Amino acid sequence: MKKTELDKGGPSHQTTDDRDQTMTTAQGGPIADGQNSLTAGPRGPVLLEDHILREKIFHFDHERIPERVVHARGYGVHGTFELTKAIPELSCADIFQREGEKTPVFTRFSTVAGSAGSPDLARDVRGFAVKFYTQEGNWDLVGNNIPVFFIQDAIKFPDLIHSVKPAPDRGFPQAQSAHDNFWDFISLTPEATHMTLWAMSDRAIPRSLRFMEGFGVHTFRLVNAEGKSHYVKFHWKPRQGLQSVVWNEALKINGMDPDFHRRDMWDSIDAGDYPQWDLGIQVFDDEFADSFDFDILDATKLIPEEDVPVQIIGTMTLNNNVENFFAETEQVAFCTQNIVRGIDFTNDPLLQGRNFSYLDTQTKRLGGPNFTHIPINAPKCPMRHFQQDGHMAMHNPKGRVNYEPNSWSEDAGPRENPDVGFNSYPENVAGEKQRTRSETFADHYSQARQFYISQTDTERDHIAAAYTFELSKVEREEIRLRMLSHLMNVHDDLASAVAKGLGITDMPKAATPAREPIDVAPSDALSILKNGPNSFAGRKLGIFICDGADADLISALESAFKEEGAMTEIIAPHIQGAKLSDGSVKPADEKIDGGPSVVYDAVAIVLSDDMAKSVAAMKPAKDFLSDAYAHAKFIGFTNAAQPLFDAAGLSGKSDEGLIELNNADAFVKSCRALRYWDRMKG
Ligand code: HDE
């Protein structure tokens, strides 16, 4: 029977004569028609024998796997790790032996609380998980962008996560900590105080995944060939420098572009601007551990870089976007217990609990024990063992033997090798079984205070504003007061700023500390603003133009920012672009209401006298300018922007962040400070 256009599903229906491109079923059978079910007559019932329909719908019905219990929203990228300083004296890990050697890695960044479809700029901790495919097996460093954690013992983790995730009755709020359950739990868990200082700081709203640090959090061990052990904390230092957004900006970005972080990562790698992080180690021994004011096994504490400097031993470059999001980013299975010879665990109770949890969760998520057969999880070095069968087994032992010991001489299969095999560090352990928390874990406030006093005034203001915002969303007053009673043990300025923000005049009694806080010196490494890049490289300038705008100035801006290693985008009243002063048409990347200033690091407003008034009448144009101003951005402008300034309520404003565009190079230089924070004072 000859097919009509309608049968074919309309004129867009495509067929091919090329055998290689022919669509097939999953069984490989060529498909003649994938758009019409098999029916009895044109209007009759669908026939059960339609194996093409059955297979297509069956597979679709099974496309989903459970999202991660936590860190469901994430983005993965391939790259390499290059060792720049060999450390055989500290560790016999193969990856740390040969300077200049490159090891493939896969890195997945994530938020913690939100579901897989939640917005990128939620206030949240970011996961920073790296899988190193070393020649002696996979090593997973499953860290965060914050060096401490909320709790000290893994047994509390389900409670912590339940409290932050949507409430079980109503199913909201999504991807937010600003609600009763979270702050109820936190206010009853004093050990979380330090971590919430970080979570209320700008660390929890990074501008880009490329602009954040990573931390292994726990104390691990490095063990050398002689079996000597040192303690180690792992750090990732972004070569791009640190940068965050402000809260009001984060809220608006979430609306304008919920994929802001993943798009930023994809775009920069696509453009060949590969983000890099240096891997640093803080190495110390028992002597330091014994003299340190806090317990090195307590994941709510960090070791200040001033006390133990971070030594850089290598660089990670992320240079390859995934080919398929599901196959790679979704199916990657990080496990803290994936370590290699030369690296070992400590008795941090949080780490030990994690070592149980990750294997368990991957088995459930990926459907069985053979998730290591999926390419993204498989080691890139040889592997030989007698594990076999199970769902979806791809690699079973070959030959007759699948056990050990065995007395077959040929094809006997793999054998143990004490010379190169993993040996646990023979730490001496003894003790009574008990459910107690060590006394040495009991100081919950001193490092929270240290974090606060290490921040600039701007950052302190942001922390107080974040607590105020979050606690203002809490319905029960007693929770707000209980939180305040902890903040009083951190710093009076913080407690009174939050109390003022909440409108509390009668301060509660400060919480009784389990152990009296001690004085600790500030640490500059804890501040973002004290560690800015002093460069605009990797950032984005938005250039707002209209018909008649100065063509020379626009091209000068584009080349000056390109020279800096930054990106530029053109925003115009129409997506078709604008006709410039020299008669050329400049295409736009965004129409003004699709390219708000919140998605740019700095803006240039290049208008013409002829269009100045009509642009000033556009609501999105006013928001573009007033948001850029409110978010302390550097704003370059031409004279013709004056009516827009007036319309945005900014007549007569002048400061060093508002720059008349006479010289593109000078404008780039100013933008290197990233924000003009002084504007926010007072
Ligand atoms: Fe995780 N965590 N976690 N976590 N975690 C998971 O594993 C868990 C903790 C971290 O991109 C889960 O694959 C327990 C600290 C990252 O795929 C789960 C405890 C740190 C990722 C799990 C912690 C992390 C996870 C959920 C308390 C920073 C995402 C899905 C002891 C050092 C990895 C999964 C990726 C994911 C358990 C605490 C980081 C359920 C029990 C501390 C970056 O196994």
List its traits.
alpha/beta, 18 helices, 15% strand, single chain, 6-stranded parallel sheet, 18 strands, Cytochrome C Oxidase, Chain J, 10-stranded antiparallel sheet, Catalase HpII,  Chain A, domain 1, 27% helix, binds CIS-heme D hydroxychlorin gamma-spirolactone 17R, 18S, 4 domains, 682 residues
Provide a concise account of the structure shown.
With 682 residues, the chain is an alpha/beta fold.
Which stretches of 5+ consecutive residues score pLDDT under 50? none
**Hetero groups:** CIS-heme D hydroxychlorin gamma-spirolactone 17R, 18S
Proper CATH architecture of the largest domain: Beta Barrel
Portion in beta strands: 15-25%
Rg computed from alpha carbons, rounded to a whole number of angstroms? 29 Å
**Helix segment tally:** 18
What does the model show?
The chain is an alpha/beta fold and 682 residues long. It folds into 4 domains: 1-63, Cytochrome C Oxidase, Chain J; 74-373, Catalase core domain (Catalase HpII,  Chain A, domain 1), CATH 2.40.180; 465-529, no CATH class; 534-681, Class I glutamine amidotransferase (GATase) domain (Rossmann fold), CATH 3.40.50.880. It has 18 helices and 18 strands. Strands 1, 2, 3, 4, 5, 6, 7, 8, 9 and 10 form a 10-stranded antiparallel β-sheet that branches. A 6-stranded parallel β-sheet has the order 15-12-11-16-17-18, with helices on both faces. A hairpin with a 5-residue loop joins strand 13 and strand 14 (585-586). The relative contact order is 0.09. The mean pLDDT is 96. Bound molecules: CIS-heme D hydroxychlorin gamma-spirolactone 17R, 18S (HDE). Residues 68-71, 74, 108, 110, 127, 129, 142-144, 149, 154, 157, 217, 299, 332, 334, 350, 353-354, 357-358, 361-362 line the site of CIS-heme D hydroxychlorin gamma-spirolactone 17R, 18S (HDE).
